[in-house]
Specification:
Blueprint: E1 2-7, E2 12-18, E3 21-28, H1 33-43, E4 49-54, E5 71-74, E6 84-85, H2 95-107, E7 112-118, E8 121-127, E9 132-140, H3 142-151, H4 172-198, E10 202-207, H5 211-217, H6 228-243
Parallel strand pairs: 1-4, 4-5, 6-9, 7-10
Antiparallel strand pairs: 1-2, 2-3, 7-8, 8-9
Helix pairs in contact: 2-6, 3-4
Bound molecules: adenosine-5'-triphosphate (ATP), pantothenoic acid and potassium ion.
């Protein structure tokens, strides 16, 4: 049994795996980390390994309290990954993006893959059919867009996410919802169109906190898997065991 932990920019997500099956999912805040992990391990005492991908400010030390109970694997740039990293600055590539790229490479062999993670940031990661990781894009996520409009202007309120009625927003609130939500959807559809125009034999994986909402609104129909990062963590760990 494996406990996978994804320390994102905003929150932490975790899942217990038996082989490739998810037994249970968890979401919690960073200040609850130790308590929650303790609780999970009490419920699943057969967990033998804890695998962490962190892009947040949570370091390996935070997990050392559990060292006596199970093996801790804190993924770094030095681990083995199933793709060739062609990023010009491989050491600054986010570990979450490396794990997503691993999962895509292992789950969908011999094809062009685009992973879109709609979380705090939207990240686009492209791995070609020869398993070269080429890079992609980073842009502000849905919640971040609402917050940025409020934080960097004098007059714009902080609104909670709402599906806009029209693209012509007829009030301040509707204009913000249209700009944020429609802009978010148009951006992603635009990127997908661009990749589709340039590559064939092509799969798109959509994940992250906003994936389910997004999947329903994209002009391009693609399948959303909110658990893709945690599944990829589990697979990256298996790959590491087999190839180290
Ligand atoms: N309870 C919640 N807290 C924060 N964001 C949420 C919540 N529920 C849904 N969301 C949506 O999820 C998005 C954040 O995604 P996610 O939870 O994947 O981010 P994260 O934990 O920071 O992870 P990452 O850094 O990997 O993106 C926000 O844009 C927001 O619209
Ligand atoms: C882009 C984020 C913030 C998305 O979580 C993360 O992957 C990260 O901190 N990346 C480092 C920069 C890069 O990937 O090039
Ligand atoms: K993300």
């Amino acid at each position: 049994m494996i406990l996978t932990v994804d320390v994102g920019n905003t929150r932490i997500k975790a899942a217990v795996f038996e082989g490739s099956t998810v037994l249970e999912n968890f979401v919690f805040e960073k200040n609850e980390l130790e308590k929650k992990i303790e609780k999970i391990l009490k419920k699943f005492p057969n967990c033998s390994d804890l695998v962490v991908a962190s892009v947040g400010n949570v370091e390996k030390q935070s997990f050392l309290a559990f060292e006596n109970e199970l093996n801790i694997h804190f993924l770094t740039h030095e681990d083995v990954y199933p793709f060739v990293n062609k990023y010009a600055t491989p050491k600054t590539l986010g570990i979450d993006r490396m794990v997503l790229a691993s999962g895509a490479t292992l789950q969908f062999p011999k094809q062009n893959r685009l992973v879109i993670d709609a979380g705090t940031c939207i990240t686009y990661d492209f791995i070609d059919e020869n398993d070269n990781y080429l890079g992609g894009a980073i842009s502000p996520g849905l919640r971040l867009r609402y917050e940025a409009l409020h934080n960097y202007t004098a007059k714009l309120p902080l609104l909670a996410f709402e599906v806009p009625e029209l693209y012509i927003g007829n009030s301040t609130a509707q204009a913000i919802h249209s700009g944020v939500v429609n802009g978010f959807v148009y951006e992603i559809d635009g990127f997908i169109d661009e990749y589709r125009a340039n590559f064939s034999n092509f799969i798109i994986i959509l994940t992250g906190g906003d994936a389910v909402f997004l999947a329903k609104r994209l002009k391009n129909t693609i399948f959303a898997n909110s658990n893709f990062l945690l599944e990829s963590l589990n697979q990256t760990f298996q790959y590491k065991i087999d190839n180290d």
